[in-house]
């Protein structure tokens, strides 16, 4: 009886350890992320490979500076929440050019709906802000610095 109880207790303990290890592993972000979206049938420029580790650990950029869920104009996303790909919410590839006589979309409308606008506002705007704050920092701000020429 004691032997059986000990085996059950050991199995339960191992199960708990396994579940916690799995939960921890799923929350760890990969070191690099390729910014690819199914919204584009063909990418005109090379895909950006973002060093998640550099941005978060080395540059000390907080998770909620990039990841977001907006409610009533506030980012309510917090560390530990699910991370969705950008195109889960920014569901159109690129904003169309306004035809003559039609009103142009506002910047906010473009960012909310269009992947291209959202990514570039989030990434490029942050890079340009960093460059303005500290001119000595090497921060890519030109297209080819993040989108190297295709080989």
Structural features, described:
By secondary structure, the protein is mainly α. A two-stranded antiparallel ribbon has the order 1-2. Strands 3-4 form a two-stranded antiparallel sheet. The protein has five helices and four strands, in the order H-E-E-H-E-E-H-H-H. Strand 3 and strand 4 form a beta hairpin.
Annotate the secondary structure layout:
Elements: H1 2-27, E1 32-35, E2 48-51, H2 52-58, E3 70-71, E4 74-75, H3 107-113, H4 115-133, H5 143-146
What labels would you give this structure?
single chain; 151 residues; mainly alpha; Cytochrome C3; 2 domains; two-stranded antiparallel ribbon; 5 helices; 4 strands; 42% helix; 8% strand; extended
CATH superfamily membership of the largest domain, which one? Cytochrome C3
- Contiguous uncertain segments of 5+ residues: 20-26
Q: What is the CA-CA span between the terminal residues?
A: 68 Å
Give the H and E element order.
Answer: HEEHEEHHH
How would you sum up the major sheet?
Answer: 2 strands, antiparallel
What structural class results from the helix and strand content? mainly alpha
Number of helices: 5
- The CATH architecture of the largest domain: Alpha-Beta Complex
> How many independent structural domains?
2
User: What's the pLDDT, averaged over the residues?
Assistant: 84
Give the proportion of residues in helices. Answer: 40-55%
Portion in beta strands? 5-15%
Give the radius of gyration.
22 Å
CATH topology of the largest domain: Cytochrome C3
Shape: extended
CATH class of the largest domain: Alpha Beta
Q: What is the topology, as strand order, of the major beta sheet?
A: 1-2
